[in-house]
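stage 2 :: seqdesign
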């Protein structure tokens, strides 16, 4: 019965098994991040922008859909890794929340225009950025409260989450 100690224990065990399966997939296929001058932005599960400093070649692989950004659940925290698109697709089958960016032709995940990235950065700086809710439980209406970043394609001429070839300036 939902809410009972037994139910919570079972759900916790399921989550631990899912995290282990996701971690094994990532560790078996992750691509080392090649540090470079290209800032590539993606949205975390909590609605915060994260930036990877990549070489232009790796940023291009992300933009082309050859690589994806996924969560790697560690016991104390969630890290992010680059993996081949096939691995990201496998992870998507296990957990929709685990894939943070993947340029799929039929339905890209995590696309934001440059303007969207700038607006999100400003909201975070002002402390007004909302958290993105976790995916709904079975039976809940998925359309309400669904994160816009999960299906919002980049605006015309925009790049996926700042993954352009322009060097980062600070």
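stage 2 :: out
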């Amino acid at each position: 019965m939902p809410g009972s100690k037994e139910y919570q224990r079972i759900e916790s065990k399921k989550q631990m098994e899912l995290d282990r399966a996701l971690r094994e997939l990532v560790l078996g296929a992750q691509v080392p991040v090649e540090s470079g001058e290209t800032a590539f932005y993606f949205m975390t599960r909590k609605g915060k922008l994260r930036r990877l400093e990549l070489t232009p070649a790796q940023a291009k692989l992300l933009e082309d859909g050859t690589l994806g950004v996924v969560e790697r659940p560690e016991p104390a925290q969630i890290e992010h890794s680059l993996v081949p698109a096939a691995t990201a697709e496998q992870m998507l089958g296990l957990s929709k929340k685990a894939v943070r960016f993947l340029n799929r032709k039929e339905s890209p995940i995590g696309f934001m225009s440059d303007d969207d990235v700038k607006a999100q950065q400003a909201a975070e700086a002002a402390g007004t950025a909302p958290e993105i809710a976790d995916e709904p439980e079975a039976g809940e209406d998925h359309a309400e409260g669904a994160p816009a970043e999960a299906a919002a394609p980049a605006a015309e001429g925009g790049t996926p989450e700042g993954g352009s070839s322009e060097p980062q300036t600070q």
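stage 3 :: structure notes
- Helices lie at 5-29, 56-64, 85-94, 114-126.
- Confidence is low (pLDDT under 50) at residues 132-170.
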